[in-house]
Amino acid sequence: MQALPFAFLAIIFYLGAGLWQGLTLTRRVPARTRLVRSLALIAVACHAVIVWVTLNHGGALHLGLFESASLVSWAICLLLVTASLFKPVIAGGAALFPVAAACVLGVMNMPSATTENPLSPGLVAHIFTSVAALAFFSIAAMQAGLLSLQQHALKKRHTRGIVQVLPALTSMERALFELIWAGMILLSVSIISGTIYLDNMFAQHLAHKTVLSLGAWIIFAVLLFGHNVLGWRGQRAARWTLGGCLVLALAFFGTKFVLQVVFSH
Could you say which of 51, 133, 141, 201 would form a disulfide bridge with 187 (CB–CB 3.0 to 4.6 Å)? Predict the structure, then answer.
């Protein structure tokens, strides 16, 4: 299948959706959630073709850095579009959609030669829950950033700009912790399935991923405890969310980046 036209369309529609949402946040254009969602949905559909073609290129499974980034960004955008039907999260698309466009461009121009052995159903479940957990936490990180900006503006008594565009602070915070809870459940399943189906989670090539994943789990567990028991919210919750997402992203992409980008030169 010729993937280039689908890549071109995915990039154009992702950038269109991200640009409109970004202009909405700066009040340059009126909010058009349905338009942004429709553009993003077309991009996600085209991106799905790219994910399929690049992961299964040449009859082998490719899970290199750019293939993984493309897969994760596709999952993030699919989840964001779906969740936006029920929760106030579409604003995060201002940053997440352009990132997905960059991932499509990257995987088309820098494919990995690394192939994986055929995966058992258990390992497929482990990969699926890992990707889904990272998708939920990535959207939570964007939500946390917007929440932080919103709270900062309100403290400074700035009632124009982004404050007028975003939903109420309580709605934003409720959506944030719902995303974190969903991510925690998936991350827990991912860690448990990895323990069951991987031969040794602390083997040399997996040790950093295991340690960082457990570290991210602890960070989010502390955050949820702090929120539910100690009343953490606002800037503190945003910082813990961003920190946990960064650690999890390092767990997912760290080794792939070092092996494919650093050591390849």
Answer: 133
